Amino acid sequence: MFLGYNTNGLAHHDLFDAVALLAGIGYRGVAITIDHHALSPRRNDTRRQLGRLRGLLAQHSMRSVIETGARFLLDPLQKHEPTLLSAGRRRRIEFYRHAIDCAAALGSDCVSLWSGALKEAMPRCEAIDRLVEGLHEVAEYAAGQPVPIGFEPEPGMLIDSMAALAELWPRIGAPNLGVTLDVGHLQCQTETPIADVIRGWGPRLVNVHLEDMRAGKHQHLMFGEGEIDFPPVLRALTEAGYGGGVYVELSRHSREGPAAARRAFEFLAARMPKR
What domains appear along the chain, each with residue ranges and CATH number? Predict the structure, then answer.
């Protein structure tokens, strides 16, 4: 298990500057959120970016995951739209194919995705059918690369909790489909004790997000500003046999990006379980 940082917390930085900055702090992984300036499917130089990024990651001995939660990349007017639930979900699926291609080119550990929010008037069962159909198509494409997929429950979306994911899971079984677990989301949704949830889902974890948070409020906070007790969380990940990246996700801290990344690293490095 090692520490990483999500580029959505360095949104005002050039992608390559962000990777070098994180390596200099001591992070061993980077969660790359595809966005307008970073591996965008709308750019003509993505292949060149991938080649340069692959070299930079190798230079710094850093691992990576690909994140797909950019707010206004696919639709400039509606945050996170279209999703796998939308009438325009084909565009989301094509974006996920692009993300999988990027992950394959970089040798990333996984592509992380979520369900999206249900904004159309339809029964929940129909929305679940749409989601399952889309996930099967994405997982099948990823299997051909091969790239693991990490499904993340997200507050405010159709699949908003680990409890909701547990209900969905029997319908989306695929060998390359795992779980992206956001520790702050567990606190937000009062799915506690967090350590118990981690142990229950441990074998399926392919990606972990970390930030502080308070119960009932989906706001990513700097460590020490929320309610989470982190040493038991980190111990539970170790006990569960998780060997991937624990990626700090401070998506609202870009205005103080370098200082926030350093504070987060110092906080977590002091609490990582000793080998």
Answer: 2-269 (3.20.20.150)
What does the block give as tokens for 159? 């699949």
Q: What residues are paired with 214 via a beta bridge?
A: 217
């091969």: which residue's tokens? Answer: 146
CA distances (Å), 204 to each of 3, 35, 99, in order?
A: 19, 27, 21
DSSP state of 226: S
Q: Are 248 and 3 in contact (CB under 8 A)?
A: yes
Q: Are strands 63-67 and 29-33 parallel, antiparallel or unpaired?
A: parallel
Q: What does the pLDDT profile of the chain (275 residues) look like in tens digits?
A: 999 999 999 999 999 999 999 999 999 999 999 999 999 999 999 999 999 999 999 999 999 999 999 999 999 999 999 999 999 999 999 999 999 999 999 999 999 999 999 988 899 999 999 999 999 999 999 999 999 999 999 999 999 999 999 999 999 989 999 999 999 999 999 999 999 999 999 999 999 999 999 999 999 999 999 999 999 999 999 999 999 999 999 999 999 999 999 999 999 999 999 86
d(CA 98, CA 230): 35
- Rounded to two decimals, what is the model's pTM? 0.97
CA distance linking residue 113 with residue 93, whole number of Å: 11
Query: Which of 202, 25, 15, 13 has the alpha carbon at shortest distance from 4?
Result: 25
